[in-house]
Design goal:
By secondary structure, this protein is of the alpha+beta class. It has helices at 49-67, 106-112, 115-122, 131-141, 153-162, 169-172, 187-192, 225-231, 261-265, 287-296, 302-311, 331-339, 346-372, 389-399, 410-422, and strands at residues 4-9, 13-22, 25-35, 39-41, 44-46, 72-76, 82-86, 89-91, 149-152, 209-213, 216-219, 241-244, 247-254, 269-272, 277-284, 378-382, 402-406. The mean pLDDT is 96.
Length: 423
Amino acid sequence: MKYYLAVDIGASSGRHLVGWEENGELRTREVFRFPNGVREENGHLVWDMPALAGYVREGIDKALREFGSIESFAIDTWGVDYVLMRGDEPVPPFYAYRDGRTEKIIGEVHKAVPFEELYRRTGCQFQPFNTVYQLYEDKVSGRLEGVTGLLMVPEYLMWTLTGVKAREYTNATTQGLISAETGAFDTEITDKLGLPRCLFPELSAPGTVIGEYRGIRAVLCATHDTGSAVEGIPMEGSEPYISSGTWSLLGVKTEKPITDEGSMAANYSNEGGVGYNRYQKNIMGMWLINRLRAELCPDTDFGAITEMARQSKNTAAVDAAAQEFLAPESMVRAFDAATGGALKTPGDYFNCAVRSLALGYKKALEDLERNTGRTYSKLYIVGGGARNTYLNELTQEATGKTVVALPIEATAMGNLAVQMRVN
């Protein structure tokens, strides 16, 4: 029996899952889970990268103890964020995408390269935390002085294990700097912004073996977690999907990027997949419910919260994509401001959040169908949010699509699938 290890790290937790093929089916077992989250440091939101690296090692050690031999491992995480390097020394702090440091320089970036040009060249949707804006802020603040390279978060964690600095395609496409035409870094953009070329080397494809750790081969999966999640969906044909976690990533596989004006107006992104383009949009996801729960009823389980939402008769809704919900000091106060104080009970807040997400999915799907010129009948939902039966019901009602909810570890399954194809 050959065993493979997927290390899947999200914004709030990480997990190590061992996978193997048995009777023609992929079997998995979680062997280790650990916490993650941003913390405040000198007025900024940062990741604890040394802690993450320690957890990754601890989970690999545990997998080896339980299974004896592991063929390969791969790591996936969220996109956008990175670690600057000076030689073999990482450059702290390790800023998190929810930090607001880019707000003051977005206009400067667009003055050097208008957003219309950025979108036409890269097809990357506007998000204030895109890597292109983070790097420009690094330049303005002097953090790029003496820097010799950059590693996205999963690449950095792989380097701490293997000593190999490899850059992977799917995660690079979250940066807002990859040419939609060539699939390589667009040096015309980086030169206009005055960013060092050493930060933008050649990219490796998912499935590349880059080294080893403790006798286990290190493989690049689709290191952007959504890229792995889409690869892990047991989908018939090409239908829209939602990878539902902290964020809801709604999209569809296409043969090539779509970078027209309609896509730009709808703020759709084009990101790398395993042999295809992911035409998708970041929509606020379970973050809303998680933060409301933390303030209103932290000891209540999510099943009870779902029922509280279902029982509420309040029909208020908000624009879930609005900036005020990205990282508010109080999510409750953000909802109060957006609804004019219409929400009275915890159930009202949760119902408002769920209804708002479903309506956001409806609008995004309408834009997707218009821009792709296709009408779809199904909507696949995977990830933690797929367990929210009330949200699934409202989404089916709002969109008119048949919702196929698969509460599976799609990201880990996609991570494993890429590894298993290497052999």
